[in-house]
């Protein structure tokens, strides 16, 4: 397939080819017009020749008739002779000059004098005509010499002898004149036949050439354009697998190539999206990219790296030359690397010379891994930058300087779709992992609760015994830890089990007061003041126990995050019609932006003794009530968790 980025040679462009075809038509029309003008000139010349030949014959006949009239009516006295001298002799001399001029013109082929032209005009004469003209001229010269000798002196010519000579020689002169006329007529007929044949051949050739140009125009322009229009219609209906045949290397061929590249990219992208929507795992997705993306850009190595909670980035999978590549466990610090730069910028990052760039910084360990595998050029594409597992998709090739601006623009344009689709795969993989963990923990929780109950009974037994102060303290510590373990198991089971609500209509403000009263001792120990702001008359339909659990969890988290001697405010108000807003606010340290999206993910926690399930359970309970939860955190505003719940119609 021709590369759409390469320039076309001018001789192969439609501008040149159509221009050449039009020029050929113009040249053909010009030649035909010139030949037509030449034919018109020849027809005029043929008319001149026939007229002059007719004049020769008419002059010869006139001379014979005048001579016969003179011989029959000879002058009988001097007066009559003088009359004939003025009339017959002058007419005879004029006819002789006229015949002599025309005869010379035929023998020489120059008819300028007869046509009264200033420049010589050569009319084409055939060989037979020239031979007849030459024979006529020779005979005429001899006859004219004899006639002049017979006439004698011009002042007293012998008209009677001259008339007798003319009558005697006229048959021979007429015969030669007729031969000239016949030869000229045969020559002109032959030339007319040849001209007609040339005209027919020229017309046939022009018709063939014009038909050929029209066929070429249809085959090289009309048909490809029609197929291109049909291709766009196919794409408009959603058929991105449609391809156009590339039949030429001109602009239309370039258009077909570009169309095929575009549809190929769209088809690959949509198949990738469909592949990801089917819930494919990471290995299947990498295999698809390794198999299909070489149609879009140079690619013989692809890998996916994910950022872990410990700040390290790990290579989770890679394909080399379309096959899985086992590289073991590769984990690198993310700080001060090009991978970190790629994630922070959120745009594709091009590394044009891996071997050289890898030597610039000791932190570029992943680039050295690529360099060891003889990869020369690479592109880092950030994926799921705001998801639970930020990561980078790496495209690499052995070809130096393989990725051009067009490839970067392609990935930049497709980055959002690829990121969203690939991020969904990562989330599905993470959810599957969490589901497996949850199922495992649920089973473990059930298994642990039985021996824990036995241990609890044993601890209760020792409470009734007389113990020393130190032994009593250890017993109380053990009971508190038993209670914490039991609470943890309860949270795990609550998150893992199907959720059911026992809803009822209730007043909201008393429930908020109950939550603050329950946490007042913890707030006192932390030196935090609890404040309540609740509009009266707020009602909603909810499960009071589950709603109280939401409030206790959010307020307890706020107490732990708040700085000493600062307030924690629990407020409730009508946000909009039939929407109630419950907010918990504290002035503690703000939540980092990078962790905002992970707060509600299960098993994510920043506390050493946290379970990572509190906020996940809160979101699940809020959504079960038909509401949603959001968080806002900034140093100047503090941190606010907002719960929006549907209220009762007023």
Low-confidence stretches: none
Query: What is the oligomeric state here?
Result: single chain
| Helix segment tally | 16
What amount of the residues lies in strands? 5-15%
CATH architecture of the largest domain: Up-down Bundle
> Distance between the terminal alpha carbons, to the nearest Å?
69 Å
Q: Overview of this structure, please?
A:
There is one protein chain. By secondary structure, the protein is an alpha+beta fold. The protein has 3 domains: 44-203, Alpha-catenin/vinculin-like (Four Helix Bundle (Hemerythrin (Met), subunit A)); 261-416, GAF domain (Beta-Lactamase), CATH 3.30.450; 504-646, Histidine kinase-like ATPase, C-terminal domain (Heat Shock Protein 90, 2-Layer Sandwich). It has helices at residues 14-72, 78-108, 112-115, 127-151, 159-236, 251-277, 282-292, 338-345, 354-358, 365-372, 405-463, 469-496, 508-526, 544-561, 593-596, 614-624, and strands spanning 301-307, 312-320, 323-324, 331-333, 349-351, 377-383, 391-397, 504-507, 529-534, 539-542, 567-576, 579-586, 628-634, 638-646. The strands form 3 sheets. Strands 1, 2, 3, 4, 5, 6 and 7 form a 7-stranded antiparallel beta sheet that branches. The protein has a 5-stranded mixed beta sheet with strand order 9-11-12-14-13, covered by helices on one side. A two-stranded antiparallel sheet has the order 8-10. Helix 1 (14-72) runs antiparallel to helix 5 (159-236). The radius of gyration is 57 Å and the shape is rod-shaped.
Briefly say what this structure is.
GO terms for molecular function: ATP binding; phosphorelay response regulator activity; phosphorelay sensor kinase activity; protein kinase activator activity. The protein has about 650 residues and is α+β, with helices and mostly antiparallel strands.
